[in-house]
Amino acid sequence: MLVGIAKMAAESDLLESKRQVEYFELPARSILNRTRTGMPFAWAINPYRGCEFGCHYCYARYTHEFMGMEDGREFEEKIYAKAETAALLRRDLRKAGHKEGIAIRTATDPYQPAERRFGRTRAILEVFAEGKGRRISITTKSDLVVRDLQLLADVGRANMLHVNMTITTLDAELARLLEPRAPRPDLRLAAVRQLAQAGIRVGVFPNPVLPLITDSEESLDRVAKAAAEAGAGYFSGGLLFLMPSAQKVFFPFLEEKFPHLVKRYKERFERSAYLRGPYQESIRERVRRIRERHGLASAPMEYQPELWAGGEQLELALDL
Ligand code: SF4
Questions:
Q1: Distance in Å, CA 58 to ligand 1 centroid
Q2: Distances (CA, A) of 300 to 168, 181, 318
Q3: CA 217 to chain centre
Q4: How much is the pLDDT for 18?
Q5: Whose CA is nearest to atom 7 of ligand 1?
Q6: Furthest-apart CA pair in the chain: how many Å?
Q7: What's the rounded Cα separation, in Å, for the pair 222 and 282?
Q8: What are the strands of the beta sheet with 21-26, ordered from one edge?
Q9: 234 lines ligand 1 (CB under 6 A)
Q10: What is the atom index within ligand 1 of the atom nearest the CA of 61?
Q11: Is the pLDDT of residue 66 over 90?
Q12: Closest to 294 measured CA to CA, from 217, 224, 239
């Protein structure tokens, strides 16, 4: 018998369907969810479940397993837009302190194609634009983010807002292989430039760094150099991790496109979903060197939004 989120998914209304992709509306109990300890932000918002971009390495496929969908492909073909996002956020924000960071996207992309139709991310930003004094980040692989340029600028004037653009490689062919339906790297860079020119704090993450595919000094350096030229302020790389749900899709992809790497990947990920030890250290050092070369910070930097007077007084006034 289906229970919880699996039951809600099974009962969701079909909103629209195109090609093999179907869109549903998913009733949600909350939109602001506590993250586990150790994360750089306390709260997470994911307006969608599933992601049409279909990156072969995507770690978020497990979220569809929670809904009783074990075939990794359903993650890209059945997209759930959470219902009543604005009303839920207005209610949920009462439980979040102003010093606590809020990350829009910890699982699925908030500017995936579904956003053009359903505008759930925009609805969330409109709620943030009503207030001030929050610490907010958005992470995406999509140039659709510039649709909301003015709204983002408004949010960033009253809140500390950072937009993180993920660019794994500048090689358009490789990107198409790895991230079949995500916008091209040059489009993402153009979005970085537009964001920076609008005064929005923006950084680039080459995540996930894929061993023997995107981890060379040359490849990472090209991304960092282009990011700096486009106006990004920070650059930070995280390594690939492969949970069993992601391995189910990623290993067949490797077998087809990178057969010479299958043995080495399986050896590395058989013991753990995470890459640690000397390899992790060497990539950390490589990224640090590259950052220095291009004058990039390692993380988003705090700034004083012009409409946020700052200080405890404001926080007390807003913490209703
Ligand atoms: S854009 Fe992000 S959430 Fe979407 S498929 Fe790619 S890695 Fe997964």
A1: 5
A2: 18, 28, 24
A3: 24
A4: 58
A5: 58
A6: 60
A7: 18
A8: 13-18, 21-26, 78-82, 48-49
A9: no
A10: 8
A11: no
A12: 224
pTM reported for the whole predicted model: 0.91
What mean pLDDT value characterizes the chain? 90
Mean pLDDT of 150-169: 98
pLDDT tens column, 207-264: 999 999 999 999 999 999 999 999 999 999 899 999 988 999 999 999 999 999 999 9
Pocket test for ligand 1, best of 45, 46, 55 (most atoms within 8 A of CB): 55
